[in-house]
Amino acid sequence: MAGNAAGATRTWLPYLAPLLMAVIALPLTGYAVWQSTAWVGVHFPGFLLMENRVIPTVSGFGWPPDKATVFHSEVIAVDRIAVASSGEVFRRLATMTPGMPVEYTLRKEGETKIVRLPLRRFEVGDLLQTYGIILIFGCANLLIGLTVGFLQPQALQARVFAFHSFVAAMYAVTSVFLHHPDFDRLNRLCLLSECLVWATFVHLAATFPVVRGRGNRRGWLLLPYAVSLILFTAVLRGFDARPPDLGALHLGYALTAFALLCVAAAMAYSYWEDRGPRVRLQIKAVLPGLMLACAVPCLVFLDNASTGRELPMQSGLLAALPFYASVAYAIAKHDLFDIDRVVRLSFVYAVVTLVVLSGYAVMLQLGAWLLPASAGRNAVLGALFLLVLAAALEPLRRGVQSVVDRA
Question: Cystine design at 281: which of 101, 197, 227, 336 (Cβ 3.0–4.6 Å)?
């Protein structure tokens, strides 16, 4: 009987890690979804604010109008009256009428600028293009990671992937608290997850599709996590400084882009060294999603790490979901003989997505060149693009499908 009890304990032990991640993540996710909906109807400046009055790189696609100027600037005054916290900014705006111009004094990299923006009311559309995208990514990633963790709890690849998905999901979900004036403790979870994401990417690159090293030879994997904790300390110190110092945060963005490239390099090297047909089939399954993850999220992280900062952070999240789904499929799927069909469908999705995103970007750029600047310009262009997309999407999909099938 003692032997049976020990065996039962060993059987359940591998499930403890995904179970613990679920216990932590699910209440936080539910609370974040609830708090995000509380933004609807709130008067806001046309940009979001972190607790330290710094404007994050999460925004609507049509606001603020000059993202490069506004992103990561510190709001030091509203209508020439100094403010001490983001909560104070929102309390002042709550007494004003939407549409009236408000003057903000911004400080960025030692320079002070004054911008005038009409006061806005946070609508459902604003919610969908900011926290909607963020929470869809977080919830989907959490579901994908926990599913793989529970399906194959004893496989090292599954455990590493589940942990990475958990960290990436928490990074997205807890950003809701980072932009809320009343969650000065929970927003630290977002900063911690942000610093850990790149380390878990490196860990995933060392594990999938081929496990590199055995036993003590994998001790070097502790180094990225140690660097992440040091980075987290520096991010906290800079976040609370006056004026805020975001250098460590920008380094974290650059490290995340670097880690994504490490994942791509690990895939390419594993395919080149030819570890067998199963490994190559796994890489084929991941390739379309990896192309999207390197083309879009990597570009967004590099933009946010540089001085440009014109791309909203959430704009690259949905493009990363095919990568997570394909890695989960390659790890959890035992029978890979039908993988060619999955690869074809994934390539079609990846190419159509890139064409649509590229077309939208070109349309906005042409609109900026040819049309006068106005508050509703991007909204009008977006509506026109949706009409064109509704008519052209199915022919575009069939054309891409034909090209991919022939290839």
Answer: 336
User: Tens digits of per-residue pLDDT, 320-379?
Assistant: 888 898 888 888 765 444 445 555 666 666 677 767 766 766 666 666 565 655 555 566
Which sign does the torsion angle of CA 274, 351, 346, 144 carry? positive
23-48 exposure pattern, b = at least 16 Cβ within 10 A, e = fewer: eebeebbebbeebbeebeeebbbbbb
Tokens matching residue 85: 């916290």
Segment 16-38, tens digit of pLDDT: 999 999 999 999 999 999 999 99
Residue whose C-alpha is closest to residue 32's, from 165, 143, 177: 177
Structure tokens at 177: 């608290």
Q: Closest Cα to residue 261, out of 334, 304, 198?
A: 198
| H or E stretch covering 112 | strand 111-118
Distance from the Cα of residue 214 to its chain's centroid: 32
CB atoms within 10 A of CB 395: 9
What's the rounded Cα separation, in Å, for the pair 218 and 203?
10
DSSP letters for 375-404? TTHHHHHHHHHHHHHHHHHHHHHHHHHHHH
Among residues 134, 177, 144, the alpha carbon closest in space to that of 317 is found at 134
What is the average pLDDT value for the chain, to the nearest integer?
84
